[in-house]
Amino acid sequence: MKLGKLALLTAMCISLLFVTSGCWNSRELNRLAIVTAMSIDKAENSNKYELSFQVVMPGELSSSSKGGGNAPFNIYSVQSETLFEGIRKASKQVPRQLFFSHIQVVVLGERLAKAGIEEIFDFFERSHEVRLTSMLLVARGSSPTKLISAIVPLAPLQSEALVGASEFSAKIWSGSPVIGLDDAIRKLINPGSEPSISGLRIYGNEQNVTKKQNVEQTRPPYHLEISGIAVFRGGKLAGWLDNGQARGYMFIVNHMRSTIMNLDCQDKPNGLALEIIKSKTKTDVSMKNGRAKVNIVVSAEGNVAEVKCGIPLDKLDVLTKLEQEWGYEAKANMMAAIQGAQKLQSDVFCFGEVLQRKHPKQWKQVQDRWDETFADAEVSIDFRGQILRSGMRGKSLMQKDG
Amino acid sequence: MKTREMAFGKSSASAGSENPSVVQGQLESDLEANIKRIRSELGSSPDLIVRQFKLRTGRGLPVAAIYLDTITDKELVNDFVMRSLMSPFLPEVPEESSSPEAAFRYICDNALAVGQIEIIDNWTSMLLELLTGKTILLVNGWNQCVCGNTIGGETRAVSEASTQVVIRGPKDSFSESIATNIALVRRRIRSPKFGFEAIKIGTVTQTSVAMLYIDGIVKEDIKNEVRKRLNKINTDAILESGYIEEFIEDNWNSPFPTVFNTERPDAIAANLLEGRIAILVDGTPFALVVPTVLSQFFTAAEDYYQRYDIGSFIRLLRYMAFIISLFGPAVYIALTTFHQEMLPTTLLINLSGAREGVPFPALVEAFAMEISFEILREAGIRMPRAVGQAVSIVGALVLGEAAVQAGIVSPIMVIVVAITAIANFSIPAYNLAITARMLRFLFMIAAGILGFYGMMLGMIMLVAHMNSLRSFGVSFFSPLVPLKFKQMKDVFVRLPHWSIRERPDDTAVDKVRVGPGQKPQ
């Protein structure tokens, strides 16, 4: 009797399991097509989207199975009115279920960027299949499909190469920010900021980027490079910040981790390499007489990494002079970045957000015309650079005296 | 020795009385008749020795020494029974008391050089004593017998523990002889408060069972409960402590053991000192400990012998091992069939590549591998040692190498099975390890049906069930449920001995363990 009751209870418990709505979407690994990168662009002559998916071939990539020497990933392309339609439509071409949770990079085409990127983010936020931490890049010069189909060395997983290049570029060159989908969305929503996305460009012969043979030689005919920062205005691509401007941007938004700046070395222009090892930026924005006043304080530390002249680095006044020069250079970069953005009326530095946070009342007054206010803002920069070390060598070997 | 304590061999009043196979009645006074009856009761056993002789004193009164050759210590019989009775130096029996009764008293008082004797007048007890290995002395014309403790015979010597091995710590372990086992414990607890009660259980086997405790520490109601449950057992045979365990445990239908067992006398001593009760059974080196809480199964004797940081680290490791061995394959199944988004991309691609061409779903794959491993392990344990090696070679080759080569399972699955197995081996208590082995399959099914959601449901049910467990009135999760922070010094970690100042309060009455100010300066 007692046993029967127990059995009944167990049966009831188990049957309860079936009525509860769980994630009843069991998918075997070998029935999944893992999408690692995705590109979105507008079709050339219509309003349709042109979507491409980079699907990895796990058999080629995993170390446990030998693989047949085929390409490590394949590209599936589809045209559609909406993103979700395209995603489902692509299933017609793919023998497995497309699996989007591992998209690492989303590359936006220039055409789409110019037409406006706002409309695509709704899908990314609404869908539970994609993740918002994927990195965003803007294709520069060529079609985004080509960029995600290029086979690159050192990374069998191409999307990993893009993420790696972007992250390392941000870390040791600080020439471009790493922007995720969520960052872009946050900046789009906030009226006091505009998104900025790193650019991705292909250099060299881009005819046969999809051939695996490209990586069988020591010098592939092309390479991918993170290049510049795309500046958006109202969700539309307005222009690019490059080189010095990009570096200035990184200083201002406090993303500067490490970079190399060249200064003049006595009489040789750009004869001294300074490695920035630490930088901290404090920004204050306020309104004065109807004009935005931006105050930027940067404190940075650096090392002398290379000199091409006999500069006596052990003299304090020499170092002080170097620090000053460094300050001019850095300020010039930052001013260039700000002027570039002001020309485009795009507040990629989120000054509006700072104002909103620090002086909410003043922000309310200029909220509606922030773009113009930003373009007209008066900016003052205080750069406090400090040179700490000069590497493992004291005196330069070109230093003649004493 | 406490007075209340009973000697082995003294049959408890309850045992045997309702047993039809035990003969009833009183002894007769005629020696020949008694011998004849013993012979017939024992079916003329060839090892039954009946040594008849005449008492040198007392006008040649016929006397018989009866014992079972196989289970008595023959030297003891020869030296201290026969020799002393037949000694020429035996003082004369006073003439006036040469009646059989006087001779009998005389033997008891003067001539039997055995430590423990007993006077018996009924057949039931006499046969029982004879069968435990004692020597019976019958005097013609008197209807009582005296039995001397000459228990002996072949027993295994005290040897090193084979199931609960330590690197540092005492190397002795229990053997099959209960007397030896009690000696091992008593040698560790030289306290007049150490007490034990002995009863015989098993209508046919009449197995000696002893209940050990330390008075003043043990809770009386737990002691009474244990005694009650032991006395209630009515079965024909107790061949191992496992028999007792099943009769006295609180939750017979739980996969979790609620009675702890060990073959280490030091572990028994430590448990007695915590106020627990040990149950020793003749014929097995494994002693039971009640009441039991979950944390006992994760405790090894060595935790207390190595320094506390080592002990704590290793104990935490064991808890982790238990979790791995319980959930390992289930997590693999849930991740690979439901929650692929939770894996790092590179790992997912590796897994995916490894599973390329594997014909079965992950659940089936995991089941096949786990079951073949369980078979392999069982074979490894039961095989004769000479063949064991062959089994492991075949197992390693077939399971590890060939199955992967043939594309039936993925190499990752082999790793999961291996990690699970090794984690399982590191649980010190074998019976809890088996619990994990069994429940693992349920969790694999839950994960196969509903992923982590299913596993979570299973886990909720498991924890609810474990919470409902009691062992002799003590919560199985104690001191976690009910939560007692002060008692947690020896649960997940083992703090230094001087800081664990109290005994567990759900088993011990006298709680003070360590005096104040013991922290080294």
Task: Supply the key terms.
heterodimer; A: 402 residues; alpha/beta; GMP Synthetase, Chain A, domain 3; 2 domains; nine-stranded mixed sheet; four-stranded mixed sheet; 33% helix; B: 521 residues; alpha+beta; five-stranded antiparallel sheet; 14 helices; Spore_Ger (chain B)
**What is the total number of structural domains of chain A?**
2
N-to-C SSE string of chain B, H for helix and E for strand: HEEHHEHEEHEEHHEHEEHHHHHHEE
How many strands in all of chain B? 12
> Poorly predicted ranges of chain A (pLDDT <50, ≥5 residues)?
none
* Biggest sheet record of chain A: 9 strands, mixed
Residue windows where pLDDT falls under 50 for at least 5 positions of chain B: 1-20
Question: What's the tally of helices of chain B?
Answer: 14
Structural class of chain B, please? alpha+beta
What percentage of amino acids of chain B are in beta strands? 5-15%
Per DSSP E runs of 2 or more residues, the count of β-strands of chain A stands at 13
Identify the most extensive interface between protein chains: A-B, 33 and 34 residues
Helix content of chain A: 25-40%
- Arithmetic mean of pLDDT of chain A: 87
User: How many strands, what sense, and barrel or not for the largest sheet of chain B?
Assistant: 5 strands, antiparallel
Order of helices and strands of chain A: HEEHEHEEHHEHHHEEEHEEEHHHHE
- How widely separated are the two ends of chain B? 39 Å
Notes on the structure:
Chain B: Keywords: Membrane, Transmembrane, Transmembrane helix. Chain B: One of its GO terms (biological process) is spore germination. Chain B: Residues 1-23 are annotated as: Disordered. Chain B: This is Spore germination protein. The complex is a heterodimer of chains A (402) and B (521). Chain A is built from 13 helices and 13 strands. Chain A has helices at 2-19, 58-61, 83-89, 110-115, 118-126, 144-149, 158-173, 181-189, 243-252, 316-343, 351-358, 360-366, 370-375, and strands at residues 32-42, 49-56, 73-80, 97-99, 105-108, 135-140, 196-204, 222-233, 236-241, 259-265, 268-288, 291-307, 378-389. In chain A, strands 1, 2, 3, 4, 5, 6, 7, 8 and 9 form a nine-stranded mixed beta sheet that branches. A four-stranded mixed beta sheet of chain A has the order 10-11-12-13, with helices on both faces. Chain B has 521 residues and is α+β, with helices and mostly antiparallel strands. In chain B, 43% of the residues lie in helices and 11% in strands. Chain B has 14 helices and twelve strands. In chain B, strand 9 and strand 10 (287-290) form a beta hairpin. In chain B, helix 5 (178-188) packs across helix 8, helix 11 (362-382) runs antiparallel to helix 12 and helix 11 (362-382) crosses helix 13 (411-425). The A-B interface holds A 6, 13, 17, 20, 22-30, 32, 34, 36, 56, 58-65, 99, 101-102, 104, 131, 157, 159-160 and B 253, 336-341, 345-346, 348-358, 361-362, 410-412, 446, 448-451, 453-454, 457, 461.
